[in-house]
Amino acid sequence: MENLDQIKTEVLEAVVAATDSKALDDIRVSALGKKGSITSLMKNMKDLTPEERKETGQKLNLIKDEVAQAIDARKTELADTELNARLMAEKIDVTLSVRPEHTGTVHPVSQTIDEAIAIFGEMGFSVAEGPNIEDDWRNFGALNIGPEHPARQDHDTFYLPREQDGNRMVLRTHTSPVQIRSMQEKGAPIRIICPGRTYRCDYDATHTPMFHQIEGLVIDEKTHFGHLKGCLIDFCKAYFGVDDLPVRFRPSYFPFTEPSAEVDIGCTRKDGEFKIGAGDDWLEILGCGMVHPKVLENCGIDSSKYQGFAFGMGIERIAMLKYGIPDLRTFYESDLRWLRHYGFKALDIPSMVGGLTR
Amino acid sequence: MKFTLSWLLEHLETDKTCDEIVEKLSMIGLEVEGVEDRSKGLETFKVAEILTAERHPDADKLQLLKVFDGEKEYQVVCGAPNARAGLKGVFATSGSYIPGLDVTLKPTKIRGVDSQGMMMSEAEMNLSDSHDGIVDLPGDVEVGARAIDIMGLSDPIIEIAITPNRGDCAGVRGIARDLAATGFGTLKPINTDPVKGMYESPIKIHLHNPADGAKACPQFAGRYIRGVKNGPSPKWLQDKLLAVGLRPISALVDVTNYFSQGLCRPLHVFDADKLNGDVHVRLAKEGETLKALDEKEYTLDADMTVVCDDTTPHALGGIMGGEASGCQDDTTNVFLECALFDPIRTAMTGRKLDILSDARYRFERGVDEAGVVDMTEMATRLILELCGGEASDLVIAGEEPQWQRTITLRKARVKQLTGVDVPESDMVRILDVLGCKLEDKGDTFDVQPPSWRSDIELEACLVEEIIRVYGYEHIEEVSLVRETNLPGIAYTPMQIKRDISRRTLVSRGLSEAVTYAFLPEKQAKLFGWSDENLRLTNPISKDLEIMRPSLLPNLLAACQRNNDRGLPNGCLFEVGPQFDGDTADKQPVVVCGVRTGQTGPRNWAQAPRRFDVFDAKADAMAVLEAAGAKVESLQVDPEGAPAHYHPGRSGALKLGPKNTLAYFGELHPGTLKKMGYKGIAVGFEIYLDAIPATKSKKTGALRPVLELSAFQSVERDFAFVVDRDVPAAKIIQSAKTADKKLISDVTIFDVYEGENVEAGKKSVAISITLQPTTDTLTDEQIQTVSDNVVASVAKNTGGELRG
């Protein structure tokens, strides 16, 4: 029976020594195969006495199981080693860059308009639009700006050649003609905002011949100056994301509103650094007022029954203030470096519930 | 509008400080643009007298001064040529900071002699650039007094912006009145007592107003003053004018400026000896000329008002006097003019001749319509006081206009419009101080606005006056309440399409640009412009002259600029108007984009390729799909794109033969070359408003029922050899029609020309998906469909199955 133990020892040693699955398989065949050493011993048991057979059989079975287990264990071990070797061979340099992907950017003007709409939309405003080329009457006359009104000189209007009944075509100098169109078409009550391109014949460091405005109009039977204040203070706080933003209304003059106001927000200018919020200084950001009764009448709205407010502000201006964009002229230069730096991602969609600004 | 604090206090009795006044002005609509405190940093300098002046022992150009500042004597070395014994100037002791030099004085030795301070020039005091010498004060000033007090520098200069409706505040008195209305003190009275005439004016006034322009000059008062002595005006007057930026000229001229600035009353003084006969006010004759006080010669037209003598014009009414009859130092007899001129005519004339004068500024905003006589009296009195002479009787032509009007103010209206309960007593007080006459009618006031407030026309104007003066800060803010519990959709359907197009393109790698709506004529022509109604009459420059017929040229120009900066591979788009005409329906908003260069930078894993027409087509299709167009129904018209596209590499995307939704393609190399664009560019133009509405009202958001087949689909591939010019779309269409029910999809996976394919032909390989819905397909069924596909393609395209 020393023979048995010797065989077992030899086989187990061989199993441990096997370095690949092929060698291991050879060992399995030589020990447990049809003609294998252990199989042969089991075959040879017929020559033994029943007692010897029983004893040897038990012993052989144990050895057989032990060997089979050892082979399995070694097999797993070898497979792991081989896999590890393969994986090491497959190693690549993951510090290499990814394949180029391309995403563009949303222009700050579009994003700012979307932000404003998100806020005003929440207050029940809807958006109205109109043409860029307007007639003189809708741009000026209907707004109580007569042909010789001094305010007209401030507007630096671009003119086009066509004229009908003394009514020249102009590039709109503000989006107010959209308010006129809306009032003419829908009448009162009305609650709209009008974002869009506007044009003035002016070009220097702080003026470009084209820029954008957003105007608002609320007409009903009860809206008063207090609502105008509430609406714009709510807007300014939400847009700039400053809950305690001081907002100040100062009397001013526009031909189409009465009373009229200019609106300042609080700011600080310390050591050349500009910051919006409670501080020792003010910054003018928009104009507004109660709609002039003549404007209502010009649009066929009964000014003895209806009243309301209008406001207007420059999109680029509020974008520059919020995002720290230093130069107005760069908005229209389409410099890819600028667009990438100041632009917004496709999925940065402003909303009051999802967040206005990421 | 500039004024000094002391000038304001001539009209306003108040105990408020300068800071309080400045703060208040902005809050009543007279926006303060700046406050200049000229005394800042000069407070410690004293008036000192030079007792003796001797030559410096070691320097020709220096003097040794003995200076007394009221307390002590100092030795000063001075290089100023005007330094002399007896001069009274401004002295800075050692240790003082000299603002104009930005240095702190130290006791020093100059060429061996101790200098214990310096006599200052205006430049050293930062008052002017004048280095002519040291400040030379009048001989009667008190030695030892603060220089800023003596020099009138302790008087802050306030500058305010005046809105176009507040012509009355173009005079200091108007500003004082507004402040008084807020409770900031009281308005001081002015003396308008008549000056007794000594004789009859030898010059009479004749108004020749045209019948249709009666307001050209409704009223004109004048007065002859003989024996005046002109010359420099007194210091108090000069200081005032200098402080607000007006150059003192002579007593007679300075008086007119003083009235203009202080009382918003432009005047004119003619040298009466230069006038030939009487004064006439009439419209100018076409082509008549006038050399004005600005020494420029103006050619006039028949819409302009002129003040003439019997033969020639001597002034542009309400704008500027003429040079010929202007007052000189030797002027002895004068004729004073105080008149009303039509605001509109004045504005038009000023604009036509491009003259911005203080008189025009005031007349075009409207001056006090009732003040002509009073102001003539006041001005006469001041001229007599400053220049002596004898005044004639007053000469008046025309009538004071009918400016009186009554506006009904409902007391409740103030609260209705502003939301504030302004006490009735405050309403009365405010309107009263502003100059209105009030009559209490119970629920209303009858209000007569003053003659200097032509801007007050309606009830709303009165509400504005009350709340403006009462204070906007008293208006309580009320948040807007929505008419509905939940917010509705704010965007129009069109804007939703635009926004989704924008964000689709951004996600596809294009950056949004915003470019001007106008461009140079040359570029406009390349993109089909011809309508002269779209040429700006007054462009900023020739490069910004024509309303753009397409968004492409601006984007191409931008890509070229980026390329020049070393940023090739530009992909830009814009969402904005294109101008097909000047009417509202001819200004569609277009989604337009260009891709230039390659798909990206060189990369170790993926080689870039040049953008081609299919990139532009993919962009267009993606946008149309996102915007809600049925892209599966789109037809591609290879001949449909405009001339600025490559004729063989472009197309139109249509729904039906007449409705074009988009163009795409490679841009025409000829067009690009003429644009100055180097290289190849592809682009697209999408007309969102051409997309038909898809959402039917009946089904709303409901999707069709999803029918998923339980049976496996089968794919079969075919390769057809067809003529080279057979469009792929036609092969697909032909294959689909072979069995519309069973064939769920047809795709092209290979197109090949070359070896093994006959010249002029191409091989097109298609993959067909068969999707049974009732049973698993049998081999026979598959064979039948396959045969039908081959037959249909052969019939419609002449294609043969490739062997």
Automatic annotation (TrEMBL), chain A:
Q: Which UniProt keywords apply?
A: Aminoacyl-tRNA synthetase, ATP-binding, Cytoplasm, Ligase, Magnesium, Metal-binding, Nucleotide-binding, Protein biosynthesis
Positions of the Aminoacyl-transfer RNA synthetases class-II family profile domain: 119-350
Q: Which GO terms describe its biological process?
A: phenylalanyl-tRNA aminoacylation
Give the residues the record marks as binding Mg(2+).
258
Return the PROSITE patterns for the record. AA_TRNA_LIGASE_II
| Protein EC | 6.1.1.20
* UniProt remark on cofactor binding: Binds 2 magnesium ions per tetramer.
List the CDD domains hit by this protein, alphabetically.
PheRS_alpha_core (cd00496)
EC supergroup of this enzyme: ligase
As for subcellular location, the record says: Cytoplasm
Which reaction(s) does its UniProt entry say it catalyses?
A: tRNA(Phe) + L-phenylalanine + ATP = L-phenylalanyl-tRNA(Phe) + AMP + diphosphate + H(+)
Q: State the family named in the UniProt similarity comment for this chain.
A: Belongs to the class-II aminoacyl-tRNA synthetase family. Phe-tRNA synthetase alpha subunit type 1 subfamily.
The record, for PANTHER family, names: PHENYLALANINE--TRNA LIGASE, MITOCHONDRIAL (PTHR11538:SF41), PHENYLALANYL-TRNA SYNTHETASE (PTHR11538)
What's the protein here called? Phenylalanine--tRNA ligase alpha subunit
State the organism of origin. Terasakiella brassicae
Q: Which gene encodes it?
A: pheS
From TrEMBL, chain B:
Positions of the FDX-ACB domain = 709-802
PROSITE patterns, per database record:
B5 (PS51483), FDX_ACB (PS51447), TRBD (PS50886)
TM annotation in the entry: none
Against SUPFAM superfamilies, the record matches this protein to: Anticodon-binding domain of PheRS (SSF54991), Class II aaRS and biotin synthetases (SSF55681), Nucleic acid-binding proteins (SSF50249), PheT/TilS domain (SSF56037), Putative DNA-binding domain (SSF46955)
Q: Which UniProt keywords apply?
A: Aminoacyl-tRNA synthetase, ATP-binding, Cytoplasm, Ligase, Magnesium, Metal-binding, Nucleotide-binding, Protein biosynthesis, RNA-binding, tRNA-binding
Q: Kindly list the GO CC terms recorded for this protein.
A: phenylalanine-tRNA ligase complex
Which EC number(s) are documented for this chain?
Answer: 6.1.1.20
Coarsely, its chief localization is cytoplasm
Q: Where is the TRNA-binding domain?
A: 39-148
The protein here is known as: Phenylalanine--tRNA ligase beta subunit
Name the gene for this chain.
Answer: pheT
